[in-house]
Design goal:
The longest helix is centred in the middle third of the chain and has 24 residues. With about 250 residues, this protein is mainly α. The N terminus is likely disordered. Helices cover about 70% and strands about 0% of the residues.
């Protein structure tokens, strides 16, 4: 990305002719994220082909002013429109796929921002937050499986290694750095519930004992609460109990 910005800024007259009104800064028009990445992709293609806004508009049957606003970063095109623009600019199939994906992500972030606007200054979700949460849950599951193995065969296995080898600490750190407060709180609750299981296994608790069941129940509840917090963070409705019929 830095190399792309450098190349574009080294050819400033062409950049301005295609993408920006004269006299305005270009490098910080949009903050880092999918909208800026899409804008830079379209600018690169326009710059390579030497197309003016009018020429691009003629190819896609849209107004030159709309094309200018997209290339300025003032408007985010719909995914289908982004793909059409890339095709008109002679982009590759990979460019078309990338443009569509970036437009989808940018639109998703815009919808979240509009939804959160009345409630206060909470920032939009970090790009990739979903992947961070999934990795955290999988690490919890791996750590818990390792602890169950230790509790299933007393004296076999190391509870500390079971947690350490799961990668849980690294994924917890990513969540602490990227997650909104409510999600981090739920994540910390399930993390510490798992640590209580580790402490019980260290003391000799086995799967058949009350000592294990007493620490497992809070862990299971905390896992459910974390899943609910993830759904809230990504704008999904909570899951009612009837979604999971008892068998």
């Amino acid at each position: 990305m830095e190399a792309l910005l450098t190349n574009l800024c080294n050819d400033m007259p062409l950049w301005y002719d295609i993408a920006m009104p004269r006299g305005r800064p270009v490098a910080f028009e949009l903050p880092p994220g999918p909208a800026r990445d899409l804008m830079l992709l379209l600018r690169r293609l326009a710059r390579t082909r030497g197309f003016s806004n009018s020429a691009i508009a003629a190819k896609i049957a849209m107004s030159a002013s709309y094309v200018g606003e997209v290339l300025n970063g003032r408007k985010c095109p719909a995914p289908a429109t982004a793909a059409t623009l890339v095709a008109a600019l002679g982009g590759t199939p990979a460019d078309t796929t990338t443009a569509r994906r970036l437009a989808e992500k940018a639109r998703e972030l815009q919808r979240y921002q509009r939804k959160r606007q009345p409630d206060g200054p909470e920032p939009p979700p970090v790009e990739g937050l979903w992947e961070i949460c999934v990795a955290f849950v999988l690490a919890l599951d791996k750590a818990h499986k390792g602890l169950r193995d230790c509790a299933g065969e007393p004296g076999v296995g190391d509870p500390d290694l079971a947690v350490h080898d799961s990668g849980l600490y690294a994924h917890r750190e990513r969540l602490l750095l990227a997650g909104p407060p409510g999600l981090v709180t739920a994540g910390e609750a399930v993390f510490h519930a798992l640590i209580e299981i580790r402490a019980a296994v260290r003391r000799g608790a086995t799967l058949e004992t009350d000592a294990y069941r007493e620490v497992y129940s809070p862990f299971a509840d905390a896992m459910w609460n974390f899943r609910a917090a993830v759904r809230t963070a990504i704008g999904q409705k909570p899951m009612p109990p009837e979604v999971f019929p008892v068998r």
